[in-house]
């Protein structure tokens, strides 16, 4: 039985993690009363008395929580951006390589990947690893997400009965090309230049579709579209991240198909000249709380999919 504390359990990710864990019989959830949720001393006591701590906080608050931990045996799963590019922390995407999985298993500090970043990294990391694309490649990334990724404030804006008509159409953001996921996308994949990143939020609750287009002329060593498919087929064949052959949706691919699901689907479409690399998943699932629970399962030594939704309804 593991004692688990969620620091920041009132936010979207914290609430989802709490919901997933509350009925498990292999853990005990430690909680603070509402009036002490932001009390540093109360949080410090809880952070040092638990076995595993989830941090579902803004970056600065997550760093503060880590600084409060004096018990060296406490294992931390941080869902913020704060530690994702810190080499002393394990990056919580075990499907990327055996080395990533091993570091997660042996680390007391695990950074849970970002939602947009998860799709980009899943698509690009294997191609850099195999030498099919150069680390100097200039890449573009489009990412379509449901509004739940914006947290409670954005959810309230989209679901308000008096909302503005601006919420009726998809909206691109990150216009300054300074999105907080860019550092993570660059560091984890090993590319030398951050991608031109175009995140788009649309009027549906959850689900994400990340697309990285590539011209075949920029592939290395004579590789082509079938070589990319083979790389994904060999790497992504588990119960959570899976290479799939064609979305089979009458020429479309919808971004919300995996809403409330914890898997990720990898697709390669296009033709021999212009290739579309695509990752589809739930921004709240494999893009957030689902990934956090997957990492929890790994460090607890239980079945990796425990508490996760891996089948389509």
Task: Describe the structure in your own words.
- With 313 residues, this protein is an alpha/beta fold.
- It has 9 helices and 13 strands.
- The two termini are 31 Å apart.
Q: Terminal Cα separation, in Å?
A: 31 Å
Helix percentage = 25-40%
Give, in order, the helices and strands. EHEHEHEEHEHEHEHEEHEEEH
Question: What does the main sheet amount to?
Answer: 7 strands, mixed
Beta-sheet strand percentage?
A: 15-25%
**Structural class computed from helices and strand pairing:** alpha/beta
Low-pLDDT regions: none
Placed side by side, the strands forming the largest sheet appear as 8-9-7-10-13-12-11
Radius of gyration: 19 Å
How many beta strands in the DSSP annotation? 13
Bulk shape: globular
**Averaged pLDDT, please?**
95
Short description:
This protein is an alpha/beta fold and 313 residues long.
């Amino acid at each position: 039985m593991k004692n688990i504390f969620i620091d920041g359990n009132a936010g979207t990710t914290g609430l989802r993690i709490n919901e997933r864990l509350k009925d498990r019989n292999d853990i005990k959830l430690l909680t603070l009363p509402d009036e002490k949720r932001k009390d540093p001393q109360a949080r410090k006591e809880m952070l040092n008395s638990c076995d595993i701590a989830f941090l579902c906080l803004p970056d600065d608050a997550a760093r503060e929580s880590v600084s409060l931990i004096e018990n060296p045996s406490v294992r931390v799963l941080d869902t913020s951006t704060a530690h994702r590019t810190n080499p002393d922390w394990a990056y919580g995407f075990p499907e990327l390589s055996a080395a990533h999985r091993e570091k997660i298993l042996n680390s007391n500090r695990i950074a849970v990947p970002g939602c947009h970043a998860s799709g980009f990294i899943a698509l690009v990391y294997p191609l850099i690893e195999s030498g099919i694309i150069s680390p100097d490649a200039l890449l573009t990334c489009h990412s379509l997400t449901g509004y739940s990724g914006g947290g409670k404030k954005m959810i309230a804006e989209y679901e308000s009965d008096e909302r503005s008509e601006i919420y009726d159409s998809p909206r691109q953001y990150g216009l300054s090309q300074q999105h907080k996921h860019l550092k993570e996308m660059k560091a984890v994949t090993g590319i030398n230049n951050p991608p031109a990143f175009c995140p788009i939020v649309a009027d549906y609750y959850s689900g994400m579709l990340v697309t990285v287009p590539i011209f075949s002329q920029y592939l290395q060593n004579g590789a082509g579209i079938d070589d990319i498919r083979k790389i994904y087929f060999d790497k992504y064949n588990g119960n959570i991240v899976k290479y799939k052959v064609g979305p089979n949706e009458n020429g479309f691919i919808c971004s919300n198909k995996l809403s409330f699901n914890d898997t990720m689907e990898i697709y390669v479409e296009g033709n021999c000249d212009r290739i579309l690399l695509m990752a589809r998943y739930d921004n709240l699932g494999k893009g957030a709380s689902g990934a956090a629970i997957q990492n929890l399962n790994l460090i607890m030594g239980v079945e990796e999919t425990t508490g996760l939704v891996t089948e389509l309804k």
